[in-house]
Amino acid sequence: MKKLLFKIATIASAIFITANVSAQTAGTLTFTFTPVSKTSCYQGSATTCKWVLASWIQSASGTFEQTTQMYCCNGQTSDHVSTWSSKSGSNTTGANTGGTLSGFTSTAVKSFTWNGKNKSGVLVADGTYNIVFQETWAHGSSTATYTYTFTKGPNSDIQTPTTNSTYQTGVSLKWIPTATTDIEQTVAGNMDITIYPNPNNTGIVNVEFEKADNIKVVNTLGMVVLNENVSHLTGSTSLDLSRFENGIYFVCVTDGDKFSKHKVILNK
């Protein structure tokens, strides 16, 4: 029984640690485009042709995160943008919404932003995400679904895609992470700290110091992901961050009432 409880506790601890070391960079995605007018549709002439449009953010594995825009008629979706409806459950929290598009409105430049959060307002993990569009005309018998891919993380991802020009022109995609307000190094007292290599592509971070009693590694959410008690008059130590997600971390060194904080960029 004790062995079983130990195993359960170990698994639970591993899950907790894994959940807490996933980087979650705050930032803003801005997507701008001009829709291409339709020449045939389910209602109206070539100049007043009516059609519907939806777009959403989903993870690389297909998990729906948030609707970014939804232009349709009276909330009807089952025979218009059924892919979006199925994925999102018709959730439009945080989205740009409006009525059915027409030949008059389709040529207007459109844009939307995404705050890096899911439909519940929770900041999602860093990684690869897709912006998926679905357009429908001819009363559902003509539908196009297409995708743009970007990376959400501590680095900017700026693109001007040329694909899918049948449906859009002037496409601009920008993921800009929120600039951290933490300075590179904060020192209380006289501490001589050297941290290298930085940026780091191996996960092994070397820390040299005159004297220290504790070293912590903190992620951008303020969670302590590594905690080491050290006792050196002079010395050094190596921190193994290789199991952590790429992103920004802070190495915090203390010696009594002295404190030093250093930003480390992990990019394995």
Give an overview of the whole structure.
The chain has helices at residues 2-20, 82-88; strands spanning 27-35, 52-59, 64-71, 96-98, 110-114, 127-137, 142-152, 157-159, 168-177, 185-188, 193-196, 204-209, 212-219, 224-232, 235-240, 247-255, 258-266. The chain has 268 residues and is mainly beta. The strands form 4 sheets. It has a 5-stranded mixed β-sheet. The radius of gyration is 25 Å and the shape is elongated. The chain starts with a helix and ends with a strand.
Element layout with pairings:
Blueprint: H1 2-20, E1 27-35, E2 52-59, E3 64-71, H2 82-88, E4 96-98, E5 110-114, E6 127-137, E7 142-152, E8 157-159, E9 168-177, E10 185-188, E11 193-196, E12 204-209, E13 212-219, E14 224-232, E15 235-240, E16 247-255, E17 258-266
Parallel strand pairs: 3-4
Antiparallel strand pairs: 1-5, 1-9, 2-3, 2-6, 6-7, 8-9, 10-17, 11-12, 12-15, 13-14, 13-16, 16-17
